[in-house]
Amino acid sequence: MLDKGRIDSIQLLLILLMAELGTSLFTVPSRVIAAAGPDSWISIVVVSGVYGLIVAWVALTLSQRFPTQVFTEYLPDIIGRIPGKILAGIFAVVLMHITSGVLSEGSAFIHIAFLRETPPLLLNIILIGAAFYGAFLGIEVIARHNLLLFAFFSVATLAVILLVLPDINTENFLPILEHGYKPALLGGKDSSAWRGEVFLLIMFYPYLKLKQEASKAAYGKVIVAVIYSTIITMTVIGVFGSVVASTQLYPVYRIARYISIGQIIERIDILIVIIWVAGVIMKLAIFLHAAGIAAATTMGVNNYRWPLLGAAVITTVMALTFFGNQAQSDYFFSNIWPLYAFSIELVFPGIILLLAFLLKKKGVSEQ
Amino acid sequence: MRKRPFILILLLLLLLMNMTFSGCWNRREVQQLSIGTGLGIDMINLDGKPQFRLSVLALQTTQPPKSGDTSQMGNPATAGTARVITSQGITIYDAVRNWNLRSSRQLFLGHTWIIVLGNSITPEGLGEVLDFLNRHKDIRFRTLVVAYDGSAQEALQAQPEFETITSLEIQQLILQNGPRVSKTGTVNIFQMTYDLLTPGRELVLPRVQLITPPESLSQSQIGIGNTDKNAPQNKVVLVSGSGVYRDYKRVGCLSANETQGMLFIKNDFQTGIIPLTVFGQNYSILLGKASSKIETEYDQDSLIINVKIKGTGSIQEGGSAINEITPEHIKQYEEALNQAVTRICYEALSRSKELRSDIFGFGDKIHRHNPELWKNISEEWEDIYPGIDVNISCDFSIEHYGPVR
Question: Complex ipTM, two decimals?
Answer without folding.
Answer: 0.85
